[in-house]
Amino acid sequence: MTDPAASIDTTRFVELTGAAYPVRIEYQWLNSERADAPIALFLHEGLGSIALWKGWPQMLCDRLNCRGLVYSRPGYGRSTPRQPAEKWPVEFLSLQAREVLPALLDALGIDARERSRMWLIGHSDGSTIALLYASAFPEALAGLAVLAPHVFVEPMAVEGIEKARISYETTSFRERLQAYHDDVDSAFYGWNDAWLNPAFLHWNITEEISSIRRPLLAIQGYDDEYASMLQLDEIKAAVGHTQLVKLTQCRHSPHRDATDAVNDAIAAFVRAHQRGISA
């Protein structure tokens, strides 16, 4: 295993001008010395950022012998916060997949060859973005692994997000989350307001993701507080070649609750398909 201190680049910033307004994106390379290795690109959860991933992306990249690319989406971490009074639309996840992520890849000079070898690793909202990217650009990746993905809205998700709002406004939750975002209210209310928008209750991407052609691994815990196993079952129904991993004693963050099982599953999945591509 490489020395983690030598593998993690310092945080950098890149300007994207093709979005609704110019934004500065915080990003970080892992194992950048492996110039010819495939990229594992990490897409964080609805309240996540580079910092909130902690050490897991580095651990997985070392296991996969990949370079890693981690970034904070607009509104999160040290990236440009939401503009005052800005409300994210119902299709905010699609906009991230179809506009922001491709613009970031362009800005970082990641060409078509590198994209065709790229693995997307998403968690929660990041998993949904990964699915939407794979459906919109079916040839521009090698495959994807999604943890606790959302493809439609369940009542338990709304209940969990309502509880999160109460906790944010009445407990130390806001203070703890502030360690991971320059503008914590931007991150929290961007996510929370979007999911609690009544129009979002009808959001459903199961038909849209049926165009995914690349290998797909979907992982979820039985104790997920935001979604049931119907999410994975609907993904499997839409994308028949999906490989499912359903974990016991695991909540909404499989990479934290069942790290070894998740790493083993992703490593086996990626290596099996890399062998197939080589053959």
Explain this structure to me?
The chain is of the alpha/beta class and 279 residues long. It has one domain: 3-Layer(aba) Sandwich (Rossmann fold). 42% of the residues lie in helices and 16% in strands. An eight-stranded mixed sheet has the order 1-2-4-3-5-6-7-8, with helices on both faces. Helix 10 links the parallel strand 7 and strand 8. Pfam families: Abhydrolase_6.
Radius of gyration: 18 Å
What is the count of β-strands?
8
Report how far the terminal alpha carbons are from each other: 26 Å
By secondary-structure content and strand pairing, the structural class works out as alpha/beta
What's the CATH topology label? Answer: Rossmann fold
Pfam families: Abhydrolase_6 (PF12697)
Organism: Caballeronia glebae
Protein name: Lactonase
InterPro entries: AB_hydrolase_1, AB_hydrolase_fold, AB_hydrolase_sf
